[in-house]
UniProtKB/TrEMBL annotation, chain A:
Domain of life: Bacteria
Record's keyword terms, sorted: ATP-binding, Membrane, Nucleotide-binding, Transmembrane, Transmembrane helix
Pfam families, per the entry: ABC_membrane, ABC_tran
Annotated ranges, domain ABC transporter: 400-632
Residues passing through the membrane, by range: 47-69, 127-147, 153-172, 232-253
This protein's name: Thiol reductant ABC exporter subunit CydD
SMART domains reported for this sequence: AAA (SM00382)
UniProtKB/TrEMBL annotation, chain B:
Record-given protein name: Thiol reductant ABC exporter subunit CydC
SUPFAM superfamilies: ABC transporter transmembrane region, P-loop containing nucleoside triphosphate hydrolases
UniProt-annotated location(s): Cell membrane
UniProt entry tagged with the keyword Transmembrane helix: yes
Pfam families registered for this protein in UniProt: ABC_membrane, ABC_tran
Bilayer-crossing regions: 20-46, 52-68, 128-153, 159-180, 241-264
PROSITE patterns given in the database record: ABC_TM1F (PS50929), ABC_TRANSPORTER_1 (PS00211), ABC_TRANSPORTER_2 (PS50893)
Domain ABC transporter: 331-564
Source lineage: Bacteria, Bacillati, Actinomycetota, Actinomycetes, Streptosporangiales
Annotated source species: Streptosporangium fragile
Membrane topology: Multi-pass membrane protein
InterPro entries registered for this protein in UniProt: AAA+_ATPase (IPR003593), ABC1_TM_dom (IPR011527), ABC1_TM_sf (IPR036640), ABC_CydC/D (IPR014223), ABC_transporter-like_ATP-bd (IPR003439), ABC_transporter-like_CS (IPR017871), P-loop_NTPase (IPR027417), Type_1_exporter (IPR039421)
All residue ranges annotated as the ABC transmembrane type-1 domain in the record: 22-261
Length: 633, 571
């Protein structure tokens, strides 16, 4: 039984009720089979009149009714559990923030949260009821058998445990092998998918036909290996089948002989014959449902692994708001005991493994409106924070100060940023340059609050970033590959300002040099994007993302991650011009590869291996490719 | 039945018919043994109550024991044979699908999700066999035998049983199958909607977090989930209904058989045997409701696979391919027109180009100008609408596509990393290459530092080490250089690299390919003074052509781009 899953089912009230109903209906229907056997034996032996068949029909009707109830309750249980789990998973993913370790591949997470959870269906609606039935019905059958005929009851009592015992013995012997084989089977599927996906590449090098042979050989080798395993693995079902049918023979033959000698009457004999198989059936049914249920267990394990994994987040969303605790104890000293959340975060965050509960606690407390400023050890009431929510506020370009900041990802040994200190003045435009993997994106993520420093501080206008409650309301972000949602262009542009009017959206698009091509789309700003909608070119997508930024006029900090990386010359110049306008009067940090983008900046900072290796006004920029010639700060 | 049509080619191969027959026989035998066990036990007990001499019972006693022993053995045989057949069927289905995909087709444009669904669909043949066909065959045999026994004992009761079995084994599965079809159509959009919302949340996590739109996106996902759950709850009523109907059919059939038998006065023994064999004969029949439900999905999957297989390839091989031209190759492209679909604007509209041996030509132009399409046409991945491509005078349409690509290939768009070692990932472009050649290719692609760090035996791809965009691009370039085709085609070799590396790579590349026939697609102009001809494509036609010197001295796209590049690079 899956502990986490059962706990989840119990904690959701609606699910708990439906699951109980589902199990009760299954058990009741199982017990009615006993009544049915009783009636059949009575009618066949002539003890009951034929009119008892009417009663039999009623029992059958009730069993059918119970099947309906069980099914409906099972449907509500599975959808309830899946919805609850899905909601928790998605909420958890958001807490973890956008910077996830490579170990959690996005595609897998999408599959797990979507289709993957459907694997729970057989576990919840098939396996769990069969466990309940297996726990009750065999005992009921035994009790009835003992009342009817001691000898037969004893035979069943002795042979019945053979099923779980043999099942466990053979299972133990073959389980590891079987599991390995099933994993190999899924790897085989993976291999095939891999080859199909890479077909264009194989075709280019004339290897496509050759791979057909490989596919066959791999499949053949795999089949022989699988069959070797199955020959042993299926022994378990052979044993179970044999135990059940031989037990029936063991019961039936002596019963027949005792009938012959007259020491047993026909009604009892028929009852024994009809009841005996019912003792074994639930156990075998449970065994049969076990395999399908295991996929569900695997899905549940994966889901709970994501839910429980607090250590992975170097800077979860939630962690960012509780990051005060990461500062060597300073927060704890000043922590006001008003909610206890600050304390919880402070204690927990000593290790990176601050458990999800602590972090969550802090987050909930924040959301409930506990004043962030109260936790600041070093005074300085953040003036920007209090009014950040007020609409219509004039743009205020913030000053950004990094003090000895080091960022580490849990799955990597070397620090992503090491001891970086920087001051970016209000309104300054900074280009970050350097090889891929040097730490430029990490620096952006740090300013976005997606990751938090392992040591050191990030100060915005003199106040630590972690304490700016609604910090992100003050910034606009244009990623390298902006995601466009499968909704209208207008809704895509107003992503960060849902209240924006269509005129504001248009104004933003015009500023981003996007108005022209958007107006040319079939439905203009109402055109749906994505798979079933219009497709935009890379340059157009980038300009929609810039329009998003323009649609947030109150944002004082602009963060751009290589917005022109994939554009050709003409698209690039449109994006560069729009970026120049956007950066006007704002503090801007731009990760840049291309000269046109770098030229926008007042200052160029080169990063290598997580450290600032050069920092100079734009005019003194060294030719691309050299580094370390300007003294680092 | 459509499913059978899909099975036919599978069954014809590998003595599959015999294997399948064996599995069916074993399955039927297992069910019959179960029927025999209960039938002989019922006879034994009912007859024993009449207290005949012991000898009269001996056959039944032997029968009970024999059936009890053989049932498990037959079941074991069925499961083994069934799985063997299923694995073979799946393997041959996959191979058949793969072979159908080898010729370039419109499939190339399909997304990763569609591809993985296609691979999932190949499991359908397995399900058709193991979860639909085998159970149905076993149920059929059992039903026939049970009804036949009934005919001997009491024809009227046998007819009742037949009616019950038909209701349980044909009507109910037909119902579940129809319900599954109806629900699949209604649930699929809701499922896709949820998947899209979830994908938004995961893939767009940064966009959503930065713009504070997380809450809205989560709410949208919850709503999609609620819509799907509401549909799923209603769908979940279909199977319990089938189960309930099954219980009723079985129970009423048994009751009716008893009523008929007792009315006919055939005696306790016959009545008991009739009743109990009727009861047990439903055991393989009732699970067919689930098989009916599964069959709907299986048939849909088979239909999708059939559509894929019957999609004509984008390029048809000639019946009798011309011999492959040898010696130094001259490639002449004349007035080439390529359209990516009827009714769409031509991607290439009258392009001419000549590559003489040793000549290096660069293709530049804005994205969407048709540069990659021209490479596809040369690699015979698309069929031109008009115009010709000749290699030493031979039209490439007269060559097999494989032969055409033997002459002209290289670095294509969207190169792929396989789940294999770095060495194997590289060596697929040169199966005979030794370590020295591999090392040379890697060095020329400026990948040697990464290879040193990663190691030749490190597994790349989905389950292995992640490969960044720049590394992937250089790995693909190393493949192309290792393959060393007579005419080298390179699509944006310096893409996704930073300025400095890109410049160095282009310089190396132009050094290394000196005297090698090459067509280079690029959007970076630096270094192009070293190629023999530059062709500027705009909107599918040649806008300008000439050497670097000529193009920078005449107004147009090239000079604009060169100036802006020079300006921004501070040259």
């Amino acid at each position: 039984m899956h502990k986490d899953l059962v706990r989840l089912a119990r904690s959701e009230r609606a699910v708990r009720g439906h699951l109980a109903l589902c199990l009760a209906a299954a058990v009741l229907a199982g017990l009615l089979v006993l009544v049915q056997a009783e009636l059949l034996a009575g009618v066949l032996s002539g003890r009951f009149a034929a009119s008892a068949l009417l009663l039999l029909a009623v029992v059958v009707g009730v069993r059918a009714l119970l099947a309906l109830v069980q099914g409906a309750a099972a449907g509500r249980t599975t959808t309830g559990v899946k919805s609850a789990l899905r909601h928790r998973l998605l909420a958890r993913l958001q807490e973890l923030g956008p910077v996830r370790p490579a170990a959690q591949r996005s595609g897998e997470l999408v599959t797990l949260t979507g289709r993957g959870l459907d694997a729970l269906d057989p576990y919840l609606s098939g396996y769990l009821p069969s466990v309940a039935v297996a726990g009750v019905v065999p005992i009921a059958v035994l009790v009835r058998l003992f009342a009817a005929d001691l000898t037969s009851a004893l035979i069943v009592l002795v042979t019945l445990p053979l099923i779980p015992i043999f099942g466990a013995l053979v299972g133990m012997h073959t389980r590891a092998v079987t599991e390995r084989q099933w994993r190999a089977l899924s790897r085989l599927g993976g291999h095939f998918l891999d080859v199909v996906r890479g077909l264009p590449t194989l075709r280019a090098f004339g290897r496509a036909r050759y791979q057909a042979e490989v596919i066959r050989q791999v499949a053949d080798a795999h089949r022989s290996a699988t069959m070797r395993t199955l020959r042993v693995a299926f022994l378990s079902s052979l044993v179970l089948e044999l135990a059940a049918s031989l037990s029936l023979a063991l019961v039936a033959v002596p019963v027949g002989l005792r009938l012959l000698s007259g020491s047993l009457d026909l009604p009892t004999a028929l009852l024994v014959l009809l009841l005996a198989p019912e003792a074994y059936l639930p156990l075998r049914a449970m065994g049969n449902k076990f395999h399908a249920a295991m996929e569900g267990v695997a899905a549940a394990d994966e889901a709970f692994a994501v839910l429980d994994d607090a250590t992975r987040a170097p800077g979860a969303d939630a962690a960012a708001s509780a990051a005060g605790g990461a500062r060597a104890g300073s927060a704890r000293a000043g922590a006001a005991p008003e909610t206890g959340a600050g304390t919880g975060a402070g204690t927990g965050a000593g290790t990176l493994g601050a458990t999800a509960r602590h972090v969550n606690g802090a987050k909930i407390a924040d959301a409930a409106g506990s004043p962030n400023g109260a936790r600041i050890g070093n005074g300085a009431e953040p003036e920007g924070v209090a009014g950040a929510d007020a609409p219509g506020r004039a743009v205020r370009a913030p000053e950004i100060r990094l003090e000895n900041v080091t960022v580490r990802y849990p799955d990597r040994e070397e620090a992503a940023l090491e001891d970086v200190s920087l001051v970016i003045a209000p309104g300054e435009r900074v280009a970050l340059v350097g090889e891929s993997g040097a730490g430029k994106s990490t620096l952006l993520h740090l300013l976005l609050g997606f990751v938090r420093p392992a040591s050191g501080r990030v100060l915005v206008d003199g106040v630590e970033l972690a304490d700016h409650g609604s910090w992100r309301d003050r910034l606009a972000f244009v990623p390298q590959r902006p995601h466009l949602f499968a909704t209208s262009v207008a809704d895509n542009i107003r992503l960060g300002a849902p209240e924006a009017t269509i005129d504001e959206v248009r104004a933003a698009a015009r500023a981003a040099h996007a108005d022209e091509f958007v107006t040319a789309l079939p439905d203009g700003y109402d055109t749906a994007l994505g798979e079933r909608g219009a497709n935009l070119s890379a340059g157009q997508r980038q300009r929609v993302a810039l329009a998003r930024a323009f649609c947030r006029p109150e944002a004082g900090l602009l963060l751009l991650d290589e917005p022109t990386a994939r554009l050709d010359g003409r698209s690039e110049s449109a994006v560069v011009t729009a970026t120049r306008d956007l950066a006007e009067g704002r503090t801007a940090v731009i990760v840049a590869h291309r000269p046109a983008m770098i030229d926008l900046a007042d200052r160029v900072i080169r990063i290598a291996d997580g450290r600032v290796v050069a920092d100079a006004p734009a005019g003194e920029r060294q030719p691309a490719g050299t580094r370390g010639e300007v003294p680092s700060r | 039945m459509t499913g059978i049509r899909d099975l036919a080619p599978v069954i014809r191969t590998d003595r599959m018919g015999r294997r399948l027959g064996l599995a069916v026989a074993a399955g039927a035998a297992a069910e019959l043994a179960g029927l025999g066990l209960i039938g002989s036990a019922a006879w034994l007990i009912a007859r024993a109550a009449e207290q005949p001499p012991l000898a009269a019972l001996s056959v039944a006693i032997v029968g009970v024991r024999a059936f009890a022993t053989s049932k498990g053995v037959f079941r074991y045989g069925e499961r083994l044979a069934g799985h063997d057949v299923a694995l073979r069927a799946q393997a041959s289905t996959r191979e058949r699908l793969y072979r159908a995909l080898i010729p370039a087709g419109p499939l190339n444009q399909r997304g990763a999700d569609l591809l993985s669904r296609m691979v999932d669909d190949t499991d359908a043949v397995q399900d058709l066999l193991v979860r639909c066909l085998l159970p149905a065959a076993a149920a059929l045999v059992t039903g026939v035998v049970a009804v036949t026994i009934g005919l001997f004992l009491l024809p009227a009761a046998a007819l009742v049983l037949l009616a019950g079995l038909l209701a349980g084994g044909v009507l109910i599965p037909a119902g579940t199958s129809a319900a599954a079809r109806r629900w699949a159509a209604r649930i699929a959009p809701a499922r896709a909607d949820l998947a899209a919302r979830v994908a938004d949340l995961v893939h767009a996590a940064a966009d959503l977090a930065a713009y504070g739109a997380n809450g809205r996106a989560l709410a949208a996902a919850d709503e999609a989930d609620a819509r799907l759950a509401a549909l799923a709850r209603r769908q979940a009523r279909a199977n319990p209904l089938a189960a309930a109907l099954g219980v009723v059919t079985q129970g009423l059939t048994v009751a009716a058989v008893i009523l008929v038998a007792q009315g006919a006065g055939v005696g306790t023994v016959a009545t008991t045997v009739l009743a109990l064999t009727s009861l047990v004969s439903f055991e393989p029949v009732l699970p067919l409701a689930a098989a009916g439900e599964r069959l709907t999905g299986v048939l849909a999957a088979l239909r999708r696979l059939r559509e894929i297989r019957s999609t004509p390839p984008a390029v048809a091989d000639p019946a009798a391919p011309a011999p492959v031209p040898t010696g130094p190759l001259t490639v002449e492209v004349e007035d080439l027109v390529v359209r990516h679909g009827p009714g769409r604007a031509p991607a290439l509209d009258g392009v001419s180009l000549t590559l003489t041996p040793g000549r290096r030509v660069a293709l530049v132009g804005p994205s969407g100008a048709g540069k990659s399409t021209l490479l596809s046409a040369l690699m015979r991945l698309v069929e031109p609408e008009a115009g010709t491509i000749r290699v030493n005078g031979v039209e490439i349409g007269d060559l097999s596509a494989d032969d055409a690509r033997r002459l002209m290939t290289g670095l294509t768009q969207d190169p792929y990393v396989f789940q294999a070692s770095l060495r194997d990932n590289l060596r697929l472009a040169g199966p005979e290459a030794g370590d020295e050649e591999l090392g040379e290719a890697v060095r020329r692609a400026r990948l040697e530092r990464w290879v040193e760090r990663t190691g030749w035996d490190a597994v790349l791809g989905e389950d292995g080490r992640t490969v960044s965009g720049g590394q992937l691009q250089r790995l693909a370039l190393a493949r192309a250089l290792l393959h060393n085709p007579p005419v080298l085609l390179l699509d944006e070799p310096a893409e996704a690299l930073d300025e400095a590396t890109a410049d160095a790579l282009m310089a190396d590349l132009l050094d290394a390919t000196h005297g090698h026939t090459m067509l280079l697609v690029t959007h970076r102009l630096r270094g192009l003074e070293r190629v023999d001809e530059i062709v500027v494509l705009e909107n599918g036609s040649v806008a300008q052509r000439g050497t670097h010197e000529e193009l920078v001295s005449s107004p147009g796209y090239y000079r604009d781009l060169w100036r802006s590049e020079a300006l921004t690079a501070g040259r």
